[in-house]
Design brief:
The chain is of the alpha/beta class. The protein folds into two domains: about 140 residues, Quinone Oxidoreductase, Chain A, domain 1 (Alpha-Beta Complex), CATH 3.90.180.10; about 140 residues, Rossmann fold (3-Layer(aba) Sandwich). The protein is about 25% helix and about 25% strand. It contains nine helices and 16 strands. The strands form three sheets. Strands 3, 5, 6, 7, 8, 15 and 16 form a seven-stranded mixed sheet that branches. The chain has a six-stranded parallel sheet with strand order 11-10-9-12-13-14, sandwiched between helices. It has a three-stranded antiparallel sheet with strand order 2-1-4, with no helix packed on it. It is elongated and about 65 Å long. The protein starts with 12 loop residues before the first strand and ends with a strand.
C-alpha cells in the first residue's frame, strides 16, 4: 500500500465500483469513471482502504431508501486515504499528503467511497492518528461510531459503577461497545456464545453469559445483582420482558438491530422503573454527533484500545463478492483495497 505523497497529481479517470440501478450484488460494476473535482468545501482523497458495511448492502439493494446522486452511483461509506487536493474553503484544514478518514459517503446524495479517489465534505473528514494501519482503522470506524453514539448520545454515557450488558458482544459493533464501555470504567457483561469467551474478555468484557443458556435470567441476575444500567443490543435477539425485568431504575436500553418477529413489550414494568429505550441508525447521525464520535475513536485508536475482527481483505475488483459476504453474515469486517 502506497503512503502519503504531498506532490501527487490525480489522473483524469479512476477505477470504481458502482451500480447503474439498485438491486442485487450482481449489479455492481467495476470500470473507469472521471476523477471527481472537489467543491469549495470538499477534499479530494486518494483512497487506500474501504470497509463494507451492512448499510452499504441495504442502500445498494434499495432496501434502505436514501437520496442518491445520479447514476452511476459509487457504493460504499467508509474510507481511509490521503489528501490530494482541497477546495478553497477546505484548504486551510487539510493539506496534500495528510492521511484522513471518513464514514459519511454513499448516502444522502453523496457519491460513495469504493474507488481510487473520492471527494469528501470537509466537515465529515477527520485526520487519522499517526502510525495507525489503514486497513485496521477503516474496519473500526463504522462499528465504533455506532457504539459511541449508542452509549454516549442515546444512553447518556456510562462510567464506574455502571453495568452494561452487550447483546451480540462478539460481533463488530458489540466488540466496540464492550471496549468503549470498559474504557469509561463500566462493568461489561457480554452476551455471546461460550466459544467467544476469550475474544470478549480480551475486548472489554468482565463476564460472559451464553445467550443460549436455559436459565439466562438467572445467569444474568447473578452477574448484575444491582441491575443493568445500560442494555445495548446489537444482535436483534433481545427478549424485552427479560431485559426490562433485569434493568436497574432509570436504566437505558439501546437497540441497533431487530429480528423480523415482533417482540412483546412489558409497558407497566418499563414505566414503573423510569426506563428509557432508544433505537437509532448511524446514517441519521448529525455532523456534530459524528465529529464527537470521531474524536473519541481517534483517541482510543492512538492508545491501542480499539480492535475488531477483520475477516476478508479483497481487491476493489471483488466488490460484488464483498457485498455477498456481508449479506451472508460473514464473521469479521470486509475491507476492499483499490489498485496501488
Amino acid at each position: 500500500m502506497s503512503g502519503p505523497a504531498a506532490d501527487e497529481r490525480p489522473p483524469a479517470t479512476m477505477r470504481a465500483a458502482y451500480v447503474e440501478r439498485l438491486g442485487a450484488a450482481d449489479e455492481i460494476r467495476i470500470g473507469d469513471l472521471p476523477v471527481p473535482r472537489p467543491a469549495a468545501d470538499e477534499v479530494l482523497v486518494r483512497v487506500e482502504a474501504v470497509a463494507v458495511n451492512p448499510v452499504d448492502v441495504l442502500i445498494r439493494s434499495g432496501r434502505f431508501p436514501t437520496p442518491l446522486p445520479s447514476f452511476p452511483f459509487i457504493v460504499g461509506r467508509d474510507l481511509v486515504g490521503v489528501v490530494v487536493g482541497a477546495g478553497a474553503a477546505a484548504g486551510g484544514r487539510f493539506i496534500p499528503g495528510q492521511r484522513v478518514w471518513t464514514n459519511s459517503l454513499g448516502y444522502d446524495g453523496r457519491q460513495g467511497a469504493t474507488a481510487e479517489y473520492a471527494v469528501v465534505p470537509m466537515d465529515r473528514l477527520y485526520p487519522l492518528p499517526a502510525g495507525i494501519d489503514p486497513v485496521e482503522a477503516v474496519a473500526i470506524f463504522h462499528p465504533a461510531a455506532t457504539a459511541y453514539l449508542g452509549l454516549i448520545r442515546h444512553a447518556g454515557g456510562v462510567g464506574p459503577g455502571d453495568t452494561v450488558v452487550v447483546g451480540g458482544a462478539a460481533g463488530n459493533v458489540g466488540s466496540c461497545v464492550s471496549q468503549l464501555a470498559a474504557a469509561h470504567g463500566a462493568r461489561v457483561i457480554a452476551l455471546a456464545r461460550a466459544e467467544d469467551s476469550a475474544w470478549c474478555h480480551e475486548h472489554g468484557a468482565d463476564a460472559l453469559v451464553d445467550y443460549q443458556l436455559a436459565d439466562l435470567r438467572g445467569a444474568l441476575a447473578g452477574e448484575a445483582p444491582g441491575g443493568v444500567t445500560v442494555w445495548f443490543d446489537t444482535s436483534g435477539r433481545i427478549d424485552l420482558e427479560l431485559t426490562v425485568d433485569l434493568m436497574a431504575e432509570r436504566g437505558a436500553i439501546v437497540l441497533v438491530a431487530a429480528s423480523p418477529a415482533p417482540a412483546a413489550f412489558p409497558i407497566t414494568s418499563f414505566y414503573r422503573k423510569s426506563l428509557r429505550m432508544a433505537g437509532f441508525i448511524i446514517t441519521a447521525a448529525s455532523v456534530a454527533e459524528l465529529g464527537a464520535a470521531a474524536r473519541t475513536i481517534e483517541a482510543l485508536l492512538a492508545a491501542g484500545r480499539l480492535e475488531v475482527r477483520i475477516g476478508h481483505v479483497l481487491p476493489l475488483e471483488e466488490t460484488a463478492e464483498a457485498h455477498r459476504l456481508v449479506e451472508q453474515g460473514v464473521r469479521g469486517r470486509v475491507v476492499l483495497l483499490p489498485p496501488a
